[in-house]
């Protein structure tokens, strides 16, 4: 039985409301595979004192654990809000094939969750960002990658 997208989005909104009641941020997410909800997640940043504990990341972590794989290519994610840059990166790395969201990033910004500065920072040279970064030269900098490339039996991701 196929679950309607509207019902799944409604569940993400319910999760977001529950998150608020528990002291978390107003975000909820779920990962679905073959029309079955594999995992749910809500924002636990302030609950867990973990800045990466966004709803999407929590749902992805839970789905990967439940399915015993980091490759979620057969899954889709539903979220109560358009994913932030970090969550979008996690979605891409997990190979989730589709994203469905309720509120847009403008609504999140209006509620105090403005990620627009991060989107702008990506296009700036690392040393000119608001959190500057500099590459430090090391003769061994490529050693981990060279070792990885020649490793037999590695699990590519």
Model regions low in confidence, pLDDT < 50 over at least 5 residues: none
**First-last Cα distance:** 32 Å
What is the approximate shape? globular
Write down the Rg: 18 Å
Order of helices and strands: HEEHHEHEHHH
The count of DSSP E runs of length 2 or more, i.e. the number of strands, is: 4
Q: Sheet bearing the most strands, described? A: 4 strands, mixed
**How much is the average pLDDT?**
95
User: How does the helix and strand content classify structurally?
Assistant: alpha+beta
Q: DSSP strand (E) fraction?
A: 15-25%
* Helix fraction bin: 40-55%
DSSP helical segment count: 7
Strand line-up across the major sheet: 2-1-3-4
Quick recap of the structure?
It contains seven helices and four strands; from the N terminus they run H-E-E-H-H-E-H-E-H-H-H. The protein is 41% helix and 17% strand. By secondary structure, it is of the alpha+beta class.
Which features characterize this protein?
157 residues; 7 helices; alpha+beta; globular; single chain; 4 strands
Task: Reconstruct the topology from this structure.
Blueprint lengths: L4 H17 L6 E6 L2 E7 L2 H4 L6 H13 L7 E7 L3 H10 L3 E6 L1 H6 L5 H7 L20 H8 L7
Parallel strand pairs: 3-4
Antiparallel strand pairs: 1-2, 1-3
């Amino acid at each position: 039985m196929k679950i309607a997208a509207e019902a799944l989005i409604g569940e993400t909104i319910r999760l977001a409301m529950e998150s608020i009641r528990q002291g978390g941020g107003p975000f909820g997410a779920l990962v679905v595979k073959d029309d079955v909800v594999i995992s749910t997640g809500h924002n636990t940043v302030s609950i867990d004192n973990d800045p990466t504990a966004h709803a999407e990341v929590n749902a992805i972590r839970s789905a990967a654990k439940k399915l015993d794989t980091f490759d979620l290519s057969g899954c889709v994610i539903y979220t109560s809000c358009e994913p932030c840059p970090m969550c979008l990166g996690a979605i891409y790395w997990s190979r989730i094939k589709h994203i469905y969201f309720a509120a847009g990033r403008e609504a999140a910004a209006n509620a105090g969750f403005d990620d627009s500065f991060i989107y702008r920072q990506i296009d700036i040279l690392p040393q000119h960002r608001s959190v500057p970064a500099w590459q430090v030269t090391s003769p061994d900098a490529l050693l981990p990658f060279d070792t990885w490339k020649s490793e037999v039996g590695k699990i590519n991701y």
